[in-house]
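User: I'll paste a sequence; please echo it back and then give the predicted structure.

Assistant: Echoing your sequence first, then the prediction.
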Amino acid sequence: MEDNSPNIHTYGALPFYQIHFVVKGNGKMFEELLLARTRKRVKGVIKKSVEDVWWEGGKIAERLNSDSRLKHLLISILKDDDDIFIDPVENAVRIYTRFKIESDLTRHLSKEAIEAYNIIAGHVKSIMKEFE
């Protein structure tokens, strides 16, 4: 007996990924301080270039905005990326981007991108230690 249902869905691995960096700690305790995301000003329609990058959110946004090395890295890595988010959860703080196509993995995990995520994680850790 054949199943000719129009509602058949295929499941399985999809060719998308999401980059997550995790800082362990009581993230919920610092929710107001650590919730943040990047914003950017882009120039051009077809050949886009990032002119400026800044952070919006809690106390951490002030620190991240004052880090000139991080800003330089973000301008170069966010030209192809969406925003970066900092999200405190129950027992950690997640630093992540939106879902990406699997074929772009090496471009989104460049040396500069990993350095930027490490700088962000360092700022997260320092705020968590400061306000414990």
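Helices lie at 31-34, 59-65, 68-77, 105-108, 111-130. Strands lie at 16-17, 20-24, 36-43, 49-57, 85-89, 92-96, 100-101.
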